[in-house]
Amino acid sequence: MYLGELSGLKLGPAPRDAFGDAFKELGKTNPLLVTVDGDVGNSTRTEPFALAYPDRGFNVGIAESNMVSIAGGLAACGKIPIVASFACFLMDNAFDQIRMSVAFPQMNVKMVGSHTGISIGEDGPSQMGIEDVALACSLPGVVVIVPSDAATTRAATAAMIEHVGPTYLRVGRGKLAEIHAPGVKFQIGKAIQVRDGSDVTIVANGLMVAAAVDAATLLAKDGVKARVLDMHTIKPIDAEALAAAAKETGAIVVAEEHLHHGGLGSVVAQVTAAAHPVPMEFVNVGDTYAESGDPDGLLKKYDLTAEHVVRAARRAIQRKAS
Amino acid sequence: MPKALNLEELKSKANDIRKLIVRCTTAAGSGHPSSSLSATDVVTALYFGGFMKYNPQQPRDPDRDRFILSKGHACPVLYSAMAEAGYFSVDDIMTLRKLGSPWEGHPNMRRLPGIEASTGSLGQGLSIGIGHALAGRLDKKSYHVYVMLGDGETGEGQVWEAFAAAEKYRLNNLTAIVDRNGYQQTGATKDVLDMGDLAGKIASFGWNVQTINGNKMDEVVHALEKARAVKDQPTAIVANTKKGFGILPVLETTGDLNYHGKPLSKELAEKALALLSQTN
Ligand SMILES: Cc1ncc(C[n+]2csc(CCOP(=O)(O)OP(=O)(O)O)c2C)c(N)n1
Ligand SMILES: [Mg+2]
User: Fold this and answer.
1) pTM of the model
2) On the CB side of A102, how many CA atoms lie within 13 Å of its CA?
3) Which residues of A touch B152 (CB under 8 A)?
4) Which of A148, A200, B141, B179 has the fewest CB atoms within 10 Å around its CB?
């Protein structure tokens, strides 16, 4: 049973595939687009672009630091480089190069991290990007996007290329439920309300949006009305939607496939604390590394299911009363 | 220190290990058999040729020799060799990559005693090995540190930072082995990032370098013997190998001689095991 199935959502393509298709497509009309790969283009899906436009694809080998700074140089000359690797190798391995060659000089580099979260499964913790959002969000002036399905991944790919400035896009490995219709209106920094409700708001991104929708379906059976916000952009965060959610529903749950510290939860908590404090609960990987295993088994073991979101919502609602 | 096997016994042991590699990755339904198979002869010689002193009952013995698999994705070869050495059972490693199993997709030293480093992000093992070698010197221990790298992995800048640092400290208790199988994830190393004269490059960093056929047991054993005798330098062995060595005719039928990061189907695994049984 996949996340979203309970709510009747169809299973769609993996975000990385949607990204790869969109990137190749955009390469047709935008000659400024180039890509720098670190020997994983067949995993991140930049390969179709590189095969279609061979003179605009550079594979520099297993050398992420070099890859990132090369992208910085290309951007300094007016190119729009997409630099992609597994999220952990891109963000964690090349962090100082990202800081000095991309963020500090505000280079127009588009960073794309694949194999995010624990749902990559069998390859295990060394390949799981679970610190990436915290690292990306820590960088001044970097836009951070975590789409929840194929439609928003396509839209986010186009939006980040249109945006002038450094961006980080997180694209998961596995297939995800289709939350949004193709051609969905997507704007960087503007949350999409997926379900309306008045008792609690579930703020989610990535694969946890489908879990949030399932949680809303389950809660509705008991008469609890949950609002679901797809907070695809973490930076800049949609503070308006959050303030409205806090005021109108009085309780917030944040669900993400990332470590507890420094991800969507931290950002939402900061904004809510300043705007309109309400009881908040957090569903995430926690403060731990995971392990090898099948994706479904891992999501259950590490508390990333609709049931966990439901329990968090009940706790938050209960705290409202007291 | 386990008893050293002779050449014929080592070849047969390598063959047993190759069978385990095929079996456990096919059972897992994912993993990196071809990357493990190229490295099998070197790993076999280290664990069974009398080169490493270790005691599976005391995996944390401070005097043990160390083996660090920097190309962590090839851990099926390490798990298989360690099972043969008695660290754990063959049944154990058949749980490879399953939820709850400490035989993870990449080595995790916190869950498996006898694993010297948690690897899987390429480029870091040689530096970790330098740390072990420096500590050994400080503690006046005579243990030796062996690190195996992939040839694609030498694209990482950190590898060259490590080559430079090891020479600075003249770490004669450190041996690096590069499994030069000619392939990396997206293709042949000569197309992705050609290191050209890899041996010459490492030698220019002040290392003693040997180049051998890393799938010929006599050459492997001889090179490891020579490495131990070098007294004032770290030694690197550039082991020219074939990715998937031992089951190449089976991989040939797939048309993919890199066969990176995928297990054999049940049918192909049976063919591979039959082939390996003939070799025994
Ligand atoms: C830092 C880092 N970048 C990328 C990867 C993804 N990756 C896993 S194996 C591999 C290819 C390794 O090639 P090589 O070192 O030649 O080893 P082989 O499999 O050929 O033995 C890559 C790129 C990784 N594990 N770590
Ligand atoms: Mg190789």
Assistant:
1) 0.96
2) 33
3) 39, 61-62
4) B141
Q: A20 is in which domain, residue-wise?
A: 15-170
Assigned token pair, A25:
């497509």
* B2 pLDDT higher than 80: no
Residue A124 and residue B100: Cβ atoms within 8 Å? no
Does ligand 1 have an atom closer than 6 angstroms to the CB of B13? no
CATH number of B7-278: 3.40.50.970
A24 alpha carbon – ligand 2 mean position (Å): 28
| Number of structural domains chain A divides into | 2
Segments making up each domain of chain B, as ranges = 7-278
Query: Could you report the per-residue pLDDT of B205-248, keeping only the tens digit for each?
Result: 999 999 999 999 999 999 999 999 999 999 999 999 999 999 99
Known active-site residue A64: yes
Does A94 lie in the same domain as A191?
no
Give the residue whose CA is nearest to atom 10 of ligand 1: B185
The rounded distance, in Å, linking the Cα atoms of A278 and A27 is: 45
Residues A166 and A39 both lie in one domain? yes
Q: Please report whether residue A239 resides in a domain.
A: yes
A232 located within any domain:
yes
Whether residue B183 has its Cβ less than 6 Å from ligand 1: yes
